[in-house]
Amino acid sequence: MCKPKYVLCATTALALGSLAAWAIIDKLVTLGIERKPENLMEKLPELSGSAEELYSVFFSDEFKERKKKTDEWLKKNSTELYMDAFDKTWLFSRFVKNEGSNKYVIACHGYGISGMFMSTYAEKFYDLGFNLLIPDARGHGSSGGLYVGMGWPERHDIKGWINRILRMNPNAEIVLFGVSMGATTVLNTAGESLPKAVKAVIADSGFSSISEQIAFIMKTYMKLPPFPVLPLSAVTIQKKAGYNIYTANTVNQVKKSSLPLLLIHGDKDKIVPCHMLFKLFKSAKSDKKDFLIVEGAGHLESEILEHEIYWNKITSFLKKYL
């Protein structure tokens, strides 16, 4: 029989170990969801030795030169819009008017960047005849918010921007477009009750749920097991950011949407694995759905590596439903 003092010591050690583990996980998760600097993409090589490998295309001279030109174009041609979100968070967006057009695209950026990242996509949509609304997500860029919503509370923010467009132009035809976290944002938005003015959704490299994405990143890059890390992460996110990662399920959202849907993904994506596209596609309620998988493309590299194929797919998709 164990002596009481040994049992007490073992119990105390276990408790202290659990508290230490909880403190570490809490810190990691907080770092993950707290407000992001606008230039996080530029800082990636400093933050992680593997970042330049994972995002190699973005650090190429060719892409940098293209991005510089489209950034200048967006700054020159855009005006600023502001609004209060459903929870009074201050939200910012860039807007580019395309004279004589009733077509609008809301273009949503990914994690750790801002709407300026979308300049390359924005210029192309403009050339296709669209007005552009390019929000900074909460917790990013010029928008308010202390924490990142990972595409879940942002679905309500996008509904707000949809209504803002309709106040400007009641005849608007709106397409929701997003990349990475922004893709998940527009997919989550699609599952809400939306005005008939919203005509289609295009999502590049979206994840199937917040919990799956967190579990993948922690297991792949931090070598942490999903249990008990994920439940502990959920506690921190609920407490600080105010949403439940288990109910924040994008698969369930696309099950509710009949909107035309185009999913895009690179088959070499090491940030949001490509199998999530198939899960989303299979679950989507819409009978007007299609997908494009770009061979050899990593995370968000599809548009760069196969530019013509990428935009031909989007253009043909939009011609069907607008």
Present the secondary structure layout:
Elements lengths: L3 H30 L6 H8 L3 H4 L6 H17 L1 E6 L5 E7 L6 E6 L10 H9 L3 E6 L17 H15 L4 E7 L1 H10 L7 E7 L5 H12 L4 H16 L8 H5 L6 E6 L8 H9 L5 E6 L7 H4 L1 H15 L1
Parallel strand pairs: 3-4, 3-5, 5-6, 6-7, 7-8
Antiparallel strand pairs: 1-2, 2-4
Helix pairs in contact: 1-9, 4-5, 6-7, 8-9
Key features of this structure:
alpha/beta, 8-stranded mixed beta sheet, 2 domains, 322 residues, single chain, 8 strands, Rossmann fold
- The fraction of residues in strands falls at 15-25%
CATH class category name of the largest domain: Alpha Beta
Oligomer: single chain
Uncertain residue ranges: 6-17, 44-49
CATH architecture of the largest domain: 3-Layer(aba) Sandwich
CATH topology of the largest domain: Rossmann fold
**Which strand order do you get reading across the main beta sheet?**
1-2-4-3-5-6-7-8
> In CATH, what is the homologous superfamily of the largest domain?
Alpha/Beta hydrolase fold, catalytic domain
Backbone shape: globular
What pattern of helices and strands is seen along the backbone? Answer: HHHHEEEHEHEHEHHHEHEHH
The number of helical segments is 13
What is the CA-atom radius of gyration, in angstroms?
21 Å
Distance between the termini: 76 Å
Helical fraction equals 40-55%
